[in-house]
Design a protein that fits this description.
Blueprint: E1 2-5, E2 8-12, H1 17-24, E3 28-35, H2 53-56, H3 59-69, H4 90-99, E4 104-109, E5 122-123, H5 142-166, E6 168-175, H6 179-189, H7 207-221, H8 232-239, H9 243-255, E7 260-263, H10 266-280, E8 294-299, H11 300-303, H12 310-321, E9 327-331, H13 341-344, H14 357-368, H15 372-387
Parallel strand pairs: 3-4, 3-6, 4-5, 6-7, 7-8, 8-9
Antiparallel strand pairs: 1-2, 2-9
Length: 388
């Protein structure tokens, strides 16, 4: 990793980061949020995205509402919070929206458990709640994963074309609590050596619990790691979640027309792995897409997470499936000087990412030419508005 400037840190494929940044210079971000639920989040100890099991069911719904309405209608607490008291990452994305009022917002439902009080939400074909990764049947079947991928592709092509014609680039973010465990499930299903590489919303990470849940899924299937390297969408259906094929399709389709930021950490690395696997296996024609138009953008808390390895994941994906020029970078956020103890919890390893926080933060800092310390007061203001 290397500091490119005060605003961001280069993580992987450093040689093409400046090309990507140049491609979005002068463009306005268009923000899409792909929201879903997986019962994986209820496996004890694997997620800190919500204080109780009941509230974890509302986290993604609340995130959708906050960006659309400026508040979470479904939560009295204001924003989803970590059991530590750290506010959810929606405070960061909310601050970016306040700074860039011209940023378009499109929420996308690919399997929410509780629908938000938002009329403009788009529901993709194949959307449904995912079962726990430990079941070995996270989605109904491979056909459902295919529907999500191709409906995502269709939407991505549409949004990419609209962005290209209107001076925008596309941010695709996610909110799916429990998603780092399903990311591990998909990565191992594809045969990538991802053990202890995925990040977590908790400081200690729960690698053993995540790995045990995925192993239970493999056992239920009677299969082993790498069993789905040649059938990646079947791997999603077995051990992934509904966000993964939808976002992979959206990103690949949109890349034909415009620059795309994947807003997220190791969950989005799993999406990149899925895309690379689909190209490797001939399910997507490499000449039809432009992976160099795609960048994975997260936060410093993920890229510098001592219990994970985002750049190592990037390398492992290409070792398995060959060159796939998607660059990784992180917004260089720092909450150590925040006046709010809850926000300072981020520096202790809580929360880290979600709701496209890294991509939204970088978009805001680039658009308004702010350094991270200059952006911090705007995030604190969102925290005050949403939580206090």
């Amino acid at each position: 990793m290397v500091n490119i400037n005060k605003k961001l840190i280069g993580v992987y494929h450093l040689e093409i980061i400046n090309d990507f940044l140049n491609s979005i210079n002068g463009l306005t971000p268009y923000f899409s949020l792909v929201a879903a639920y997986t019962a994986t989040v209820q496996i004890p100890g694997v997620s800190g995205a919500g204080i109780t099991s009941e509230l974890r069911e509302l986290t993604a719904t609340a995130d959708v509402e906050i960006l659309a309405l400026g508040k979470a209608v479904c939560l009295q607490e204001g924003v989803p919070s970590n059991p530590s008291g750290a506010p959810g990452p929606s405070i960061i994305t909310h601050a970016a929206f306040k700074l860039i009022p011209e940023m378009t917002y499109l929420p996308i439902d690919v399997g929410l458990k509780i629908m938000p009080a938002v009329k403009s939400i788009v529901k993709l074909e194949g959307a449904s709640q995912a079962k726990a990764v430990s079941s070995g049947q996270a989605l109904e079947n491979e056909a459902q994963a295919q529907k999500l991928f191709y409906s995502g592709w269709k939407l991505g092509v549409k949004l990419g074309s609209e962005c290209a014609n209107s001076g925008h680039y596309l941010i695709i973010a996610e909110t799916i609590p429990g998603g780092t465990t399903t990311a591990l499930g998909l990565l191992l299903a594809l045969g990538i050596n991802a053990e202890e590489l995925v990040s977590s919303s908790m400081p200690g990470n729960a690698h053993h619990l995540k790995l045990e849940a995925v192993k239970q899924g493999f056992q239920a299937l009677g299969k082993e790691k790498g069993a789905f390297a040649k059938t990646p969408l079947a791997g999603v259906a077995a051990l992934g979640d509904t966000m993964q094929p939808a976002v992979a399709g959206m990103a690949m389709g949109a890349s034909i027309h415009c620059p795309v930021m994947l807003g997220g950490g190791t969950q989005m690395a799993a999406v990149v792995a899925l895309a690379a696997a689909l190209v490797k296996n001939g399910e997507v024609d490499r000449t039809r897409i432009k992976p160099e138009n795609i960048a994975l953008v997260t936060t410093r808390w993920v890229s510098e997470d001592a219990t994970a390895d985002l750049s190592g994941l990037g390398a492992a994906i290409e070792t398995k499936f060959g060159p796939f020029p998607v660059c990784y970078m992180s917004a260089n956020l720092d909450f150590s000087q925040s006046k709010y103890p809850g926000m300072r919890q981020y520096e202790l390893g809580f929360v880290k990412e979600g709701v496209g926080a890294g991509a939204a933060a970088l978009a805001a800092m680039l658009t308004k030419n702010l350094d991270p310390d200059e952006f911090l007061p705007y995030i604190e203001r969102s925290y005050e508005q949403l939580c206090l």
